[in-house]
TrEMBL record:
GO molecular function, one term: ATP binding
Protein name per its UniProtKB record: Fluoroquinolones export ATP-binding protein
Keyword Hydrolase listed: yes
Keywords: ATP-binding, Hydrolase, Nucleotide-binding
EC numbers for this chain: 3.6.3.-
């Protein structure tokens, strides 16, 4: 899928003979976007890692408490790829 992102103007996902999605790679990624937030925090003298979806951060009490207590060590997001969009649309990996 990396090659398709870099080389193609438009990409179609065809599943069982039907077109599931057809658009430019950036638009497919934006439409299928679910950003994941990864963060590291200190707990009991050890670094702990946790992930949550960006649209669910308001409900993540652990993250909210860590923010209030200023205990976050790192925080970053993972952007989806065309492969992630394909999997979310079809429910299966590339074969």
């Amino acid at each position: 899928m990396y090659d398709a992102s870099e080389l193609c103007d438009r990409v179609a996902f065809i599943v069982k003979g039907s077109i599931k999605a057809l658009d430019t790679p950036p638009n497919l990624i934006i439409k299928g976007r679910r950003l994941k937030l990864n963060y590291t925090f200190r707990q009991a003298e050890q670094d702990q890692q946790r992930s949550t979806m960006i649209d669910e951060t308001a409900d993540d009490e652990i993250l909210l408490n860590l923010l209030r207590q200023n205990r976050l060590i790192t925080i970053h997001s993972d952007e989806p790829t065309l492969n992630d969009v394909f999997v979310s649309l079809t429910g299966s990996n590339l074969q």
